[in-house]
Amino acid sequence: MVILGIDPGFAITGYAVIKYENNNFKLLDCGAVNTKAGIPLPTRLASIYDDLSLLVSKYNPDFISVEELFFNQNVKTAINVAQGRGIALLVGAKNNKEVFEYTPLQVKQAVVGYGRADKKQVQQMVKAILNLKEIPKLDDITDAMAVGICHAHSYNILKKCR
To answer: For 18-30, what is the mean pLDDT?
Structure first.
């Protein structure tokens, strides 16, 4: 299966395209959609939509997995991030892809085995699972990889529950 993992945002949206077969992971692509401050929010969201849609066209993932919003103290930032998250969900819907959403706790549990793992632990496990030479410089990319790995680990369980 091919999974497009997305760590949504409006300034930076991390993505990772992961192939999972026979309990083996292969990273096909990863990166970030960056939008610049000062540009109107609708234009930024359109850019995220366009770039994520290109990834779906290029890799035709079986599933899209998106990290759920972790609410912080800044309500304005949370609302803008939520709008970026909505764009990720829209990309899935418009491309007839099944979208799965995971909380940060679920992602950590699936990747590290402990839902309260810190960021460094998650990064190290992502590096090991995907056999990376180094951890990506942007946390958003590593988080997208982690949410993709989470779906790969969770899908078989979800399938049995259906």
So the answer is: 96
Return the pLDDT at 64: 98
Structural element, H or E, at residue 13? strand 12-21
121 Rama class: left (phi>0) / alpha (psi -120 to 50) / beta: alpha
The kind and range of the H/E element at 135 are none
DSSP 19: E
Q: Has residue 16 got a pLDDT over 90?
A: yes
3-state secondary structure of 4: strand
Mean pLDDT of the chain: 93
Q: What are phi and psi of 38, to 5 degrees?
A: 95, -20
Distance CA 45, CA 59 (A): 21
61 residue type, one letter: P
HSE value, Cβ hemisphere, 13 Å, CA-based, for 70: 9
Q: Is the Cα torsion angle 135, 62, 9, 110 positive or negative in sign? A: negative
Name the nearest CA neighbour of 33 among 65, 5, 11.
11
Best CATH choice for the domain 2-161 from the list 3.30.420.10, 1.10.10.10, 3.30.470.20, 3.40.720.10: 3.30.420.10
Indicate which residues carry an active-site annotation. 7, 67, 140
pLDDT higher than threshold 70 for residue 18: yes
